Amino acid sequence: MIRYVTAAVMLRLFSAGPLMRGMYRRLGNVVGARQRLGQGLPGSYVERALRFKRLCEKHEAIGNGMRLLEIGTGWVHWDATFLRLFYDVQATLFDVWDNRQLEAFKRYFGQLEAHLEGEIELDATTARRVRELLRAIAAVSTFDELYRLLGFRYVVQPDGSLQRFEDGAFDLIFSFNVLEHVQADILPQFTRDMARLLRPGGYAIHQIDLGDHLAYYDPIVSPKNYLRYSDTAWRRRYENEVQYFNRVQRPEWLHLFQSAGLVLLEEQRVSADIGAIAVDRKYAHLDRQDLECTALTVVLKKAGSSCSGGHGLPTVPLAGQETGQQR
Ligand SMILES: C[S@@+](CC[C@H](N)C(=O)[O-])C[C@H]1O[C@@H](n2cnc3c(N)ncnc32)[C@H](O)[C@@H]1O
Question: What b/e sequence results for 22-59 when a residue is b if at least 16 CB atoms lie within 10 Å of its CB, and e otherwise?
């Protein structure tokens, strides 16, 4: 528990005002970039991207010409770029701050081809397409060049609001390990906005990390240690702004999505032994399965059937398209 508490103290210190938060982010970018460059492409990223692609294809949620929104795109635009290798899609990459790392991006996609061999069967045309795009990605020297190559745009919205986007602007909205970082009190509006941005019949796919993020600093602590604390105790001792996570549990997520008008098509859960922790009253209504749920992936659909794009096979890249960075 010492490392858990120390991590909480440090993160709360870094949350004390705009100056400290700025310092945390600058430091995080430098340290994070070094780590990613040193470690290279994690196998978990490849496994996740392949699972994501399979889910999209199974539900016919992806096709050429579609408009994608990746929420919390992060350092390397991983999931949108991965899909773009196979489909001619236009992606909007959304985040609340600019934490992009070009070198890490290029390292990850530079190592992807070797990872893909043996993991996925590609016909000759698709294999050539993927190879050519990976070569083109390796040659870019700025993110703006990359966005022109792929037909992407980058949007930073510090308050996380999705209100700038028009109704029905996207065919597929997705996120990986992001929704747990959205402030709990704005979640009803956030999920309603997400539904509004989808065209009728559009899809949303989200992977939500329900684990205690402070426990990542302390492997001897329960992966859902936060269940022990009331809101007051959590806020007083552990909650911080720089690595905020909302402690929202599986049934509440499902309720939020349903209330926003999204229909659940598929759900995948990861569970862990949470040990003999005394669960706070706040979580007393949850059954064991929900308490032990550490990650949740949902495939959701907005009612209706208006269609944009197609579900055809990959064709040529959208190279040279006029898109770029927005803030
Ligand atoms: C754990 S990282 C995941 C990044 C990326 N999805 C990945 O898996 O590589 C969480 C990301 O969500 C972003 N984020 C946090 N709160 C957000 C919000 N309210 N809206 C959109 N993005 C947010 C962070 O800036 C960060 O880039």
Answer: eebbeebbeebbeebeeeebeeebbebbeebbebbeeb
Residue 276 identity: A
Tens digit of each residue's pLDDT (9 = 90 or more) over 246-289: 999 999 999 999 999 999 999 999 999 998 899 999 999 999 99
Residue 178 backbone dihedrals phi, psi, to 5 degrees: -125, -45
d(CA 29, ligand 1 centre) in Å: 13
Closest atom of ligand 1 to 78 CA is 9
CATH number at residue 36: 3.40.50.150
Ligand 1 center from residue 312 Cα (angstroms): 31
Looking at the structure of the chain, the number of domains it has is 1
Residues of the chain with pLDDT under 50: 309-327
pLDDT at 61: 98
